[in-house]
Amino acid sequence: MDAPSPLEQRLIDLEIKASYTDDLLDRLNEEVVRQQAQIDLLKREIGRLQQLVQDSTTGPAPSLRDELPPHY
Question: What is the domain partition of the chain in residue ranges?
Fold first, then answer.
């Protein structure tokens, strides 16, 4: 078998690089999808926690006058 010509070798190298690039792009896309799912979960959790805080602090805020000691 003859060695590939420089042009053929260059084409082979480019095809290999393109293959690695496609694989990298696929892996990065999977990571972005995974991170988006995590972000969505965290947003829901924050909303749930905000609702809990809101529910626990129902009613008007206490007046500072109500906080005065009895001897005033």
Answer: 1-51
